[in-house]
Amino acid sequence: MQTEVRMIPITTPYGEYKVWTQRCGSNPTKRLLLLHGGPGMTHEYFQSFDTHFADSDIEYIYYDQLGSHNSDNPADRKFWTIARFVDEVDQVRKALGLDASNFFLLGHSWGGVLAMEYALAHPEALKGLIISNMMADCTAYQKYADDVLGPQMDPKVLARIKDLEAAGQYSSEEYESLLMPHHYEKHVLRRPMDQWPECVMNALTHVNQDLYVYMQGPSEFGISGVLATWDRSKDLKHIKTPALVIGAEYDTMDPAYMKWMSEQLPNGSFLYCPEGSHMAMWDDAEVYHEGIKEFIGRV
Question: Which of 97, 151, 289, 296 is the most buried (most CB within 10 A)?
Answer without folding.
Answer: 296
